[in-house]
Amino acid sequence: MEKLTLAWSLQNHLHHYTFHQAATTKVAQKLRIGRDPAQCDIIFADRSVSSLHVELFFSAALDAALIQNLRPSNPPLIDGFQLTQGTANLSQGSQIQLGRIQLQVSQLVLPGQAQVAAPPQPQPQVLNTASAYGLKCPNPSCGKVSRYDEQVLKQGCPWCGFSLAAANTVMMVRPQS
């Protein structure tokens, strides 16, 4: 039977979640991760994580565990690579970064494979990624993206002054040098 265990650290506590085909989840045979408790099985309160960020599932045809991006404007990083759309394969030890939250595939069992567990590695709760993420102004006549930090969040949009309380977190494209 397929099985995938995720590990992450929040406030110096190591957390684990094991997902398998028969698990009871919000959407059958899929594990959803994000901020919204009504839509997600693993919930993170951090504003850098989208309401419905990603879903994980098993593909019998590919004999693989896959992750799918559900938020193109805030793509996850899978083993350091941006998943802007579609799916990516997960493997033992894969690193998944959702906003400022980092998870690790600590165990992955697929049909025909021996069960192997990676030793859990401490994961930071918050990464220094403020320069990679921004807040998109919810004002339809503005829509500009400002840097993600507490000061901007409290003061509002630097261009129009609109409140950023309902702003979406987006990945900012860094210029190539």
Characteristics of this structure?
5-stranded mixed β-sheet, elongated, 6-stranded antiparallel β-sheet, 177 residues, 1 helix, mainly beta
Walk me through what this model shows:
The strands form 3 sheets. The chain has a 6-stranded antiparallel beta sheet with strand order 2-1-11-10-7-8, with no helix packed on it. A 5-stranded mixed beta sheet has the order 4-3-5-6-9, with no helix packed on it. Strands 13-12-14 form a 3-stranded antiparallel beta sheet, with no helix packed on it. Strand 7 and strand 8 form a beta hairpin. The protein is 3% helix and 37% strand. The chain is mostly beta strands. The protein starts with a strand and ends in a 6-residue tail after the last strand. About 6% of the residues have low confidence. The longest helix is centred in the C-terminal third of the chain and has 6 residues. The protein contains 1 helix and 14 strands, in the order βββββββββββββαβ. The radius of gyration is 17 Å and the shape is elongated.
